[in-house]
Amino acid sequence: MIAGHFGFAAAVKAKAPRAPLWALMLASVWMDVIFVPLFLAHVETIDVIGGGAPRYGNGIIHADWTHSLVGALVISAAFALVANLFWDRVVALVLGAVVFSHWLLDLPMHHHDMPLLPANAGHLPLLGFGLWSWPLASMLVELALVALGAFLYRRAAVSIAKDDVAAKNRANVSSLVLLASGVATLAFNVAGQ
Ligand SMILES: [Zn+2]
User: Fold this and answer.
1) Distance, CA 193 to ligand 1 centroid (Å)?
2) What pTM value is reported for the model?
3) CA of 163 to the centre of ligand 1 (A)
4) Which residue, 132, 169, 141, 166, is CA-closest to 57?
5) How close is the Cα of 102 to the center of ligand 1, in Å?
6) Which domain holds residue 147?
7) What is the pLDDT along the chain (193 residues), one digit of tens a residue?
8) Residue ranges with CB less than 5 Å from ion ligand 1
9) Number of structural domains, the chain?
10) Exposure string over 93-110, b if 16+ CB within 10 A, otherwise e
11) Ligand 1 centroid, distance to 42 Cα (angstroms)
């Protein structure tokens, strides 16, 4: 899931206008960004359910470091600390919280593959409610997040613009771009796997 995380980032932008949208979007997928080099190094892996080609939502993702509860908390705190070098404490905390939102939003989607402790230490019960077993429902949830994010973003930007017509137009265009790029991201995600 990428589009849903981006949608959430746009919704946060509406509530925390001082946080840059690009930084919120990066934060929302940061756990997956760290997953990529670990995946290439075979530290974290993906098993396809039933074998065959990977498709949208049919992976058991062994992201035992990045997507463990404690790992996610550590990654979020580290992100906030680095963000605080560039922005004030409130923005840094918002960004750290958005990093952790990734874990919370992945929780309903993943197929019981999210550990509590890094490297699945202690082999405690794995989490994930498996909505990906119903790809259509998962896509609808992602689309709803994208639509909600674009809607809240537009509403906030229009209210900041007040009577400035040019700023209102910019708000309309940016929210449409957010909506379109979210839908495109989901389409690539569904088609490309
Ligand atoms: Zn993820």
Assistant:
1) 15
2) 0.94
3) 40
4) 132
5) 6
6) 3-192
7) 999 999 999 999 999 999 999 999 999 999 999 999 999 999 999 999 988 888 899 999 999 999 999 999 999 999 999 999 999 999 999 999 999 999 999 999 999 999 999 999 999 999 999 999 999 999 999 999 999 999 999 999 999 999 999 999 999 999 999 999 999 999 999 997 5
8) 32, 106
9) 1
10) bbbbbbbbbbbebbebbb
11) 16
